[in-house]
UniProtKB/TrEMBL annotation:
InterPro entries: ATP_synth_F0_asu, ATP_synth_F0_asu_bact/mt, F0_ATP_A_sf. SUPFAM superfamilies: F1F0 ATP synthase subunit A. It catalyses: H(+)(in) = H(+)(out). The lineage of its organism: Eukaryota, Metazoa, Chordata, Craniata, Vertebrata. Its main location: membrane. GO terms for molecular function: proton-transporting ATP synthase activity, rotational mechanism. This is ATP synthase F(0) complex subunit a. It is a multi-pass membrane protein.
Length: 84
């Protein structure tokens, strides 16, 4: 019985971990975009700089999402193979 519970917990823990990683990236993008709109009226030059940082961070976050999806599918398939 304990083994069956352990095999159920591993995919759930993986999902929580991946969700936390993706949420952290989303929150960082949200904070920087808020700073960009705030700086637009005060310091337009700094706003342009933060916009370029935001663009680079968005590209990085897309790459992270692709890698996270690959890891999720790979580990989930390994966990399912252990059950069969």
């Amino acid at each position: 019985m304990l083994v069956n519970q352990f095999l159920l917990i591993r995919p759930l823990a993986l999902g929580v971990c991946l969700t936390a990683n993706l949420t952290a990236g989303y929150l960082l993008i949200q904070l920087i975009s808020t700073a960009t709109t705030t700086l637009l009226s005060i310091l337009p030059t700094a706003s342009i700089l933060t916009t370029s940082i935001l663009l680079l961070l968005t590209i990085l976050e897309i790459a992270v999402a692709i890698i996270q999806a690959y890891v999720f599918v790979l580990l989930l398939s390994l966990y399912l193979q252990e059950n069969i």
